[in-house]
Amino acid sequence: MTFISHTGNGRRFVVSDIHGCLKTFRHLLENRLQLTSADQLFLLGDYIDRGESNAGVLDYILRLKTENYQVYPLRGNHEEMILGAWQLHKNQMPPHIKFADRLWDAPDLLDATGELPDTYVAFFKSLPYFYELDNFYLVHAAIDFKHPRPFTDYSTMVWEKQFSYNPGPKIVVHGHKITPLPEIIKRVENRSLIIPLDNGCYYGLAKFRKGLFNFGRQKEVGNLCCLNLDTFELVVQENNE
Ligand SMILES: [Mn+2]
């Protein structure tokens, strides 16, 4: 079931591409939004890799769910990758090859024996590729509306970086492609049919800052953005890891 109804009077928030930045994510939810269990929180994937607190972000999301917060996480390409690597490892790898050698950037996810804990595997497997809401589609990367059955086109939904066609009427909110802040603000203000939310939060980490020249003006990336689906208010939280 991927249709999510707007229940009660709570707010509806969307956040994408947390990438291991737990402090920033918590500050956004707890201090800026003051999230309550009446609100719905949609997460567009890429919880892990790049930042330092990969396990921390997953544990926090799982804890919110346990505490009856209405959290709806989607699958990003980083979850797809780690799950694929894990399944390959379990099915095909000779036992002497450690899973850690196949992991890219999230060593803190592994237990003492170098395995991926069952709770994380179950979480990754549970993640859907999209949600449909009353006036929105939510997806990690893109939807190919020219595909005969777009919602079975899983690789586009987690990987595609080119996304420019949406016939409407529902707005698509997506992450995955780092988008400069002025462009995000413009798309939100215009209520565009395609709204990007990934502002490259992890570029606020010291180890990535030197990559910022790719984006021209530095102030335009490095924030975790949150969109209120009902008011179209955009909350921009600077990386504070
Ligand atoms: Mn991504």
Automatic annotation (TrEMBL):
N-terminal signal peptide: none
Record's protein name: Metallophosphoesterase family protein
Coiled coil: none
Molecular function as annotated in GO: hydrolase activity
Entry's EC annotation: 3.1.-.-
Domain Calcineurin-like phosphoesterase: 13-180
Database matches in SUPFAM superfamilies: Metallo-dependent phosphatases
Keyword entries, A-Z: Hydrolase
Pfam families in UniProt: Metallophos
Keyword Hydrolase: yes
Lineage summary: Bacteria, Pseudomonadati, Bacteroidota, Cytophagia, Cytophagales
